[in-house]
Amino acid sequence: MGYPATSRTDLLQASRRNDLIIETGRQIQKDFGEFGLEIHFTGTAELFYEELFGQMKVHVAYLLSDNIDRFMHFLYRIDISETDISMYKNQMPDQDYDYVLTELIIHRELKKVITRDYFRQQAKGASGQGELEG
Predict the structure, then answer these.
(1) Any idea what the Cα angle at residue 94 is, between residues 104 and 38, rounded to 5°?
(2) Cystine design at 98: which of 5, 41, 61, 67 (Cβ 3.0–4.6 Å)?
(3) pLDDT tens per residue across span 34-67
(4) Predicted model pTM
(5) Contact, 17 vs 110, CB < 8 A?
(6) 10 Å Cβ neighbour count for 78?
(7) For the packed helices 97-133 and 68-78, what is the interaxial angle rounded to 10 degrees?
(8) How many Å apart are CA 49 and CA 63, to the nearest integer?
């Protein structure tokens, strides 16, 4: 059995699937919403990045400046480690910290959605095989 694809190339390919983009937008809304941070998303895959990035970056900058403990809890909730942050910062040395973190959050949320989709497909395949055999 393979594993869900989450390399940078896999993320780019998944970003071409509108259903995964829309689900990622909804996941971002949910995770930010749990911290009282409102994100507006029309559900239009083509506008996903332009629509969400700016809103997210404002919230990230606010959390960084307002309450670092709350921000660390937020990153923990999304499942972002200090190693992830360091890796992204090294890949984008000329970008502001809030920009790097926002990019990382988007990629992490997309990975979550890809992983869920992968296991949904595996479950469908397994249940479909059982029906064919029976």
Answers:
(1) 40
(2) 61
(3) 999 999 999 998 889 999 999 999 999 999 998 8
(4) 0.81
(5) no
(6) 19
(7) 20
(8) 20
